[in-house]
Amino acid sequence: MTTEDLRPGDALLIVDVQNDFCPGGALPIPEGDRIVPVLNRWIEAAERSDIPVYLSRDWHPRGHPSFASEGGAWPVHCLQDTEGAAFHADLRVPAAALVVTKGTRFDQDQYSAFDQTGLHSRLAKDGVRRLWIGGLAQDVCVRASTLDALDLGYAAMLIPGASLPGTEEGGREALREMAEAGGASGGAAGRN
Ligand SMILES: [Zn+2]
How much is the pTM? Predict the structure, then answer.
């Protein structure tokens, strides 16, 4: 799988490549920033071929239920309008890219870029049938977004080398789940 495989009806879905998920951030994925140059190559190729690019971001209000202080599983991260919530500075963000904001609810977390964001409607309007997915973390929000994409009937491909997990074990399990779901729906979640 290379950028040569991009074709009409495809789109890129880049999940949560934000400072807080990279080394030095509040909830860092080991070597998370290593995927940025890979993603940039795919984003450039997408731009050349008029393939749409969607970027999701975790975008929490203060007091979000996912925070440990509120009984959730995570330290405070990706607070709205902070540097931690900004996309990694080296990530190529096309002017035409659409940003999908999630994690804004006070009553639940949203791991998937499809979870009550309207993304499915937008993709349908844009004629998207196949998604190339990358980002952070492979075993949390990339996993949830990919499983939802497959469930919604998209073909979903993991961009090789463009996602990393919070833990190695979590990553192995997520890759297995995504591959199994892909087989069941006729799509394919590629291995990194
Ligand atoms: Zn979050």
Answer: 0.94
